[in-house]
């Protein structure tokens, strides 16, 4: 993680998302994408069309997570927790997050949120993901990642990562351009934003994926809270 963290944090504050370029190597992306057809290592498979989520499918990893994802989850959480705590303070929310991921997961598990949430998604031509929020229970860490495993323009065409924000002042949509191995860190639910007349306003965030025109697209979703 060689990102300019000050610029990264500024992007999160002003846009609700920020890109970590080349978080994974092409070999690491291929290694993770190759897990999708396997049956072991996953706790469930979801076909999105059956639930009105869009088209495509995804699988939730089971514990123990693949070592690479477990390492990323533990390394990124301590960098993101101070941002999450600052956001909650600005929004007037009492919740504060501990310094270490294991302490936070213990909090989730004590509340009955014991199922792992990291997932791998697969899209093929015509597939898309409706705008949504990944909540899963009472305890929600306000930042998460999506990592693109496939090569845009080569493995697939279309399938852009899309974010929207809604506030009292209106709505805004943005396409986040990713290359293979890039990760976008983004707000799960709400983020603080500067009000037009000063002070802080709450902005609701949602994310999704536009329709894939051709090929196949794999991504990783790295979520820090566990599910009920």
Top keywords for this entry?
228 residues; alpha+beta; Jelly Rolls; six-stranded antiparallel sheet; 5 helices; 14 strands
In terms of topology, how is this protein built?
Layout: H1 5-15, E1 17-20, H2 26-33, E2 42-47, H3 48-51, E3 54-55, E4 57-61, H4 67-90, H5 101-110, E5 119-124, E6 128-132, E7 143-148, E8 156-158, E9 161-167, E10 170-176, E11 183-187, E12 190-194, E13 200-209, E14 212-222
Antiparallel strand pairs: 1-11, 2-4, 3-6, 4-5, 5-14, 6-13, 7-11, 7-14, 8-14, 9-10, 9-13, 12-13
Protein name: 2OG-Fe(II) oxygenase
InterPro entries: DUF2086 (IPR018655)
Organism: Variovorax dokdonensis
Question: What does this protein structure show overall?
Answer:
- The protein has one domain (5-222): Sandwich (Jelly Rolls), CATH 2.60.120.
- Helix content is 25%, strand content 36%.
- The protein has five helices and 14 strands.
- The strands form two sheets. Strands 1, 2, 4, 5, 7, 8, 11 and 14 form an eight-stranded antiparallel sheet that branches. Strands 3, 6, 9, 10, 12 and 13 form a six-stranded antiparallel sheet that branches.
- A hairpin with a 2-residue loop joins strand 9 (161-167) and strand 10.
- It comes from Variovorax dokdonensis.
- InterPro entries: DUF2086.
- This is 2OG-Fe(II) oxygenase.
């Amino acid at each position: 993680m060689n990102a300019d963290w000050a610029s990264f944090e500024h992007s999160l504050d002003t846009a609700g998302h920020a890109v970590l370029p080349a978080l994974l190597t092409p070999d690491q992306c291929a290694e993770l994408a190759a897990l999708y057809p396997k049956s072991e290592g996953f706790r469930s498979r979801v076909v999105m069309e059956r639930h009105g989520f869009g088209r495509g499918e995804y699988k939730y990893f089971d514990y123990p997570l693949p070592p690479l994802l477990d390492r990323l989850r533990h390394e990124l959480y301590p960098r993101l927790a101070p941002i999450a705590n600052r956001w909650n303070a600005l929004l007037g929310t009492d919740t504060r997050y501990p310094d270490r991921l294991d302490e936070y997961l213990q909090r989730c598990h004590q509340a009955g949120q014991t199922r792992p949430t990291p997932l791998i998604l697969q899209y093929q031509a015509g597939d898309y993901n409706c705008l949504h929020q990944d909540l899963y229970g009472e305890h929600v860490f306000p930042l998460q990642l999506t990592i693109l495993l496939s090569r845009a323009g080569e493995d697939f065409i279309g399938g852009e990562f899309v974010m929207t924000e809604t506030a009292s002042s209106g709505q805004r949509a943005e396409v986040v351009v990713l290359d293979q191995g890039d990760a976008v860190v983004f707000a799960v639910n709400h983020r603080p934003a500067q009000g037009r007349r000063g002070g802080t306003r709450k902005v609701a965030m949602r994310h999704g994926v536009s329709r894939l025109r051709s090929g196949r697209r794999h991504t990783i979703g790295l979520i820090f809270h566990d599910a009920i």
